[in-house]
Amino acid sequence: METTKLPPTSPSSPTTGFSVPSAEKVDGFPRRSMRRARQRRSHSSSQFRYQSSQVELTPLPLLKDAPVAELHNLFCKKLQQCCVLFDFLDCVADLKGKEIKRAALNELVESVATSRGVLIEPLYPEAIKMISVNIFRTLPPSENPEFDPEEDEPTLEASWPHLQLVYEFFLRFLESPDFQPSMAKRYVDQKFVLQLLELFDSEDPREREYLKTILHRVYGKLLGLRAYIRKQINNIFLRFIYETEHFNGVAELLEILGSIINGFALPLKSEHKQFLVRVLIPLHTAKSLSIFHAQLAYCVVQFMEKDATVTEYIIRGLLKYWPKTCTQKEVMFLGEIEEILDVIEPSQFIRVQEPLFKQITACISSPHFQVAERALYFWNNEYILSLIEENSQVILPLVFTTLYRVSKEHWNQTIVSLIYNVLKTFMEMNSKLFDDLTASYKCHLVSFSE
Amino acid sequence: MQHKSKMAGADGDDSLYPIAVLIDELRNEDVQLRLNSIKKLSTIALALGVERTRTELLPFLTDTIYDEDEVLLALAEQLGNFTMLVGGPEYVHCLLPPLESLATVEETVVRDKAVESLRKISQEHSPVDLEVHFEPLVKRLASGDWFTSRTSACGLFSVCYPRVSSTVKAEIRQHFRTLCSDDTPMVRRAAASKLGEFAKVLELDYVKSDIISLFTALASDEQDSVRLLAVEACVSIATLLPQEDLETLVMPTLRQAAEDKSWRVRYMVADKFSELQKAVGPEITKNDLVPAFQNLLKDCEAEVRAAAANKVKEFCENLPEDSRETIIMTHILPCVKELVSDTNQHVKSALASVIMGLSTILGKDNTVEHLLPLFLAQLKDECPEVRLNIISNLDCVNEVIGIRQLSQSLLPAIVELAEDAKWRVRLAIIEYMPLLAGQLGVEFFDEKLNTLCMAWLIDHVYAIREAATCNLMKLVEKFGAEWAQNTIVPKVLGMANDPNYLHRMTTLFCINALSEVCGQDITTKQMLPVVLKMSNDQVANVRFNVAKSLQKIGPVLDSNALQTEVKPVLEKLDTDTDMDVKYFAQEAISGKYTTLSIFFLYEVASLGPLHLVILIHFSP
Predict the structure, then answer these.
(1) Which of A139, A415, A420, B478 is 20 to 30 A removed from B151 (C-alpha atoms)?
(2) pTM score, two decimals?
């Protein structure tokens, strides 16, 4: 895309003594968000490519005034009316039509949510068609090619005033007491679900929120689609991890998976274990981990609570992918390890304690104080402390030298005092071993300096 | 560790000790050590000899496949060059087991490297070994459980197909077909991306019977990421088929791709347009691609329009000569005109980077009548990138109509860019100055642009001042020392008296840049006195830059000036109260010593003891 050959950013900064025009920021560049605002697309979106000529909408009678015999027919007409799409990038185009559709959608939502007996079989294909026509679209290219979900404001969907009501209708439709999965499954099929999943890449968080609830309902009600949904989510994640590193809806999909995992039957099927080892654990390598880490850690812990035997896979996996340079991610990993240790079974703890505490020791000696601090906080956790105490014969020799050395060397006073507390705890825990280690360390130091 | 003792050192052979260490390090806990050792794998193998490499080292390596990805990547790469180390082509199949495992790991870069190495060593297999060892491996990968091995298999079909028997060929085709309709999109993507390559090694009949149906299926896959890869394959396939088959076998799919509902697929078509055009030939281009190209130029997504705009020149260049001008004038130019006022700046700037190229194709008259207004409009565009792209391509127009036609509009555009609020824009236009100066000529330059070049010297951004000094040097290279002496040197030297110390320093930076191109005479007579005078500046930064400048211009000066003028000043600066000034004065003195010493060593013999004293004095 970038065709001009502008020189790279940040050459040596201007020397002092100049006044910078106040309109400019320090580097003379407006913030990205401002830049973007000016480039708003004014071409219509891909969605309208095939709707050749705009249909003129005429208001229909209100649903609530319709005689019972007419109700279904009118409902159906309204659904058809709502299949007409409007261009929201041109905000003044066809205001009347937009208003008619909005009102019709509102009525449909209202009707499906409150009145009983509306959802009869012939309406299913019409309803699903209306939903498909409105929500399924190729998402437009991101307006900001280097979109950083943490830094930048997302591009909001322009047609949201209608889209929201369509989603609302879909949700009410799925939640209606009249909803019959056996009828719906003919229309909400694999192809439908695949398109639904692709929409999770939407940059608009409001849309993803609706999609999340809707997919959850679909998963809950249409049992035949469950395996397929899981498999497609797998594919999205694998593509995200190994191919594109870009997908906006990872957090939302993980949230759904969190509750899916919760419902897994025991013993875990190998398909599910494979998902844990080959998808969830490698997800930790993503650059944008911070956006979905909470949901990911939740899924991981859910797995452990289901079946303690996966613990070793998880811990060894995390150790394999331990961040080497990104301290922010290291703090997240430590947070996740603490969540895991909180629910770990003592027998499992013994299997991983050595490699785990080697890593924790490395974190304690990190020059980045937040990493060291996060690792040292483990000693404030009573359950972890009890695990350490039970295994102090193994753990203390692993960490002792580092603790001792860092307590003398670390630049940050908070870290030094935290380490003193840890050393004190160890001393109280196993004074014999502690004294032995101190003696041999001093001995080692002496022989070293000689 | 057992492996180590078994492999080396057990027989007490001391000469293998370094190798034992390397092998030991293959097991070390530190990733970096393991990595270093893996990178020296060929040394280890060489020392062990071919037989032990085959029987001991390779099985050991096959066991280490559970290592860090970084180590695995290095291993995968090494094994591709291992043929001689295992005993030549006869034994090359020994390398297959470790590479097979590497081709199934999760990490894409490792897998890709393993496939690359496998492709490489496949060529070293005899046809028999290829069927006995290599092809079964491909089959195993192609029917692997996890998608990674099937993905890797896609890249291996084309290397073994040409060299196996027809029965095995049939099997390979069958496997490829299966992978093209694989359940996971990752595998379908891998297959789609290798479709063109595989088509090239197939017999034409099979291209028509097998490949076309796979191509059609992949091009209408449910996932756009698969469909767009089929567009790439389209180029290779169309090249392979005889012209008369293209219409029925390829064109329906290509037309469909150009109108795909996903903008990514349309983008791909636009991006590959020149290749497609060459592959389908002039007739289809005239009938089909011209309207398709028009649609892409008018696409509703800016990404697609920009990709198409980028191809405008190439597309026009490759049109059949008999109808080129008509097609451009009646079909392409109207779209181009619209793009000039597109709402998206990327589209306009993509167009601006190629539009000038049309002038050579359309010739003088058309350029003046039809293109010139567009160039002028783009020169006035609100977006600086667009203007820059036009200016950076001026040479194309220069050849056809001469730059004079443009110069009246050029000037305001340049001036505006030169004063743009964004320093990066200013920086970019500075870089085109030498080019512009060359095309507009010295007169026009002196009259219109010289002031700009001098104004940049006092820009408030250092990067601009720096670029401006460099620009002056390039201008002098173009226009010569005499021009420099008359036009820029006086202005540069004048700045030495500026109240702002940053401007005074700019004088020094300019002198650093200009001394060499201006030559000894100007440097000694005009620049040196100014530099020396500045050694009394009240700002320490200026003084230490004097020291730096003296070091820099030293080689240009004559020996007399060095001794009588430069040396005392440097000595004075060496006693400066400021630490940094002293430091740079010393640097200059010792630096001078190295540049001058050679000079003195020549002179010493002829001139006698005085110079020897100087030589000793200068030495630290």
Answers:
(1) A139
(2) 0.77
